[in-house]
Amino acid sequence: MHSPSSAILAQASAIDAPIARQGYVDAFRGLLIAHMALDHASLMFNAGRAGEELAAAAAPVPGDLLQFLTRFTGVPVAPAFFFMAGFMVALTSAAREQRGLPHAEVTRRLILRGLVLIAVDALVMGLPRAAMGFYSFVVLSSIGAAIIILALVRDAPGKLLLAAAIAVLALHPLLDVSALPLPLRAVLYEPVRSGAFRSLYPVIPWAAIAVVGFVAGRDALHRLQPARFWLGLAGVCLALFLAIRLAGGYGNAYAYTKVASLAFWNFAKYPPDLPFLAWSFAAIFAGLAVLWWVTRSGLPVWLRPFMVFGRVPFFFYVVHFYVLGLAAAVVHTKWGLTQTYLIWLLLLALMVWPCAWYYRKKRERPNWVTRYV
Predict the structure, then answer these.
(1) CA separation (Å) from 132 to 129, 183, 350, 371?
(2) Residues 6 or more apart from 207 whose CB is under 8 A from it?
(3) Which is nearest to 316 in space by CA: 112, 15, 30?
(4) What is the pLDDT of residues 100-147, one digit of tens each?
(5) Distance (Å, rounded) from C-alpha 347 to C-alpha 338?
(6) Of 9 and 278, which is predicted with more confidence?
(7) Which burial class, exposed, middle or buried, applies to 188 when counting CB atoms under 10 A from its CB (0-12, 13-18, 19+)?
(8) What is the pLDDT of residues 170-206, one digit of tens each?
(9) What is the DSSP string of 190-232?
């Protein structure tokens, strides 16, 4: 006898994904969603969670190895979200134009989607922040801005886009935006963590990560077996990470005393330093390669829940934040890692059904809301 959860997963899996998207894409996004949920559960319930990795001041390295690994394994997650946002722009744009949608209409929809992300971040996700007296330009707003940028530049040659993105990622530590008004500094480059206007994911350099993802997605459309190429890129990024981190100096926001220390693996995330970015890209390309290989003959059973999450990441993001936030407001207590991991697993189990349900509705009853949320 099949369990209700198995039936839900089977029903969700039976619905064909868009023609430009393969199983590894949704599985990868679903795994990112799952780890993001762990980090947010840790943020709200883990008493031992370390502080934010602001470039201006090094966050303390947790003395507990499991606490460190809980945070460190999530290093590639935020960059991967931006990367996959660009990757999906490449895949969905090609699929829509293949179905006969005019080029200008594809551009219009991309711009509209970016505006929806910014609006939802401000009006839906921003309600708790507004109640506390501030507005924050965070991940959905930054991804929305990145999608709008991609909508406007996606016709440019891939080599030009990649060169521009790499230049931004490599040179952004040299930026000085101190002369700009604070809101503009917060949106463009400098994370701001106090006052009425705050930010964590300013457009520079996060939008450049989305541009790299767009170029990689467009390239993937023309590769029958991209895994080997991605593994090669992962190796290049890993070598670049080691070269930058071992050399010290430029791009390294945090110092370390020796390689055999946790401090060596402690990176600045806001804004991301060069070791953070190189390590993240190595993990992204390696993860894509492994998942492409694992799913080449079909989606394994153990990946199906993550595929369900990965098909509706925007929906998951909004709902899970309110579930965790309401739970944290009710219990008003923080615990250790064991309880945090149990809360995380419970959250994932609770999110399977609504995500599968919402994906079915998107497919069965397409409309303006389900298209953009």
Answers:
(1) 5, 18, 28, 31
(2) 82, 142, 145, 146, 149
(3) 30
(4) 999 999 999 999 999 999 999 999 998 888 888 999 999 999 999 999
(5) 14
(6) 278
(7) middle
(8) 999 999 998 999 999 999 999 998 899 999 999 999 9
(9) --B-SSSEEESS-HHHHHHHHHHHHHHHHHHTT-SS-HHHHHH
Structure tokens at 250: 């430029």
CA distance 9 to 27: 13
CA gap 324, 338 in Å, rounded: 16
Which tokens is 160 given?
């030009």
To which H or E segment does residue 234 belong?
helix 227-247
Q: Is the peptide bond before 226 cis (omega within 30 degrees of 0)?
A: no
pLDDT of residue 13: 41
d(CA 192, CA 133): 15
Burial of 297 (0-12, 13-18, 19+ CB in 10 A): exposed
- Contact between 280 and 76 under an 8 Å Cβ cutoff? The reply is yes
On the CB side of 58, CA atoms within 13 Å amount to 14
3-state secondary structure of 6: helix
Count CB atoms within 10 A of the CB of residue 325. 15
Q: Tens digits of per-residue pLDDT, 328-345?
A: 999 999 999 999 999 999
Q: Which residues contact 342 (CB under 8 A, 6 or more apart)?
A: none
Taking the CA of residue 142 as centre, how many other CA atoms within 13 Å lie in the half-sphere pointing to its CB?
31
Contact 249, 275 (CB under 8 A): no
Nearest to 320 by CA among 18, 32, 112, 10: 32
Q: How far apart are CA 240 and CA 60, in angstroms?
A: 25
d(CA 250, CA 245): 9
> Is pLDDT above 90 for 28?
yes
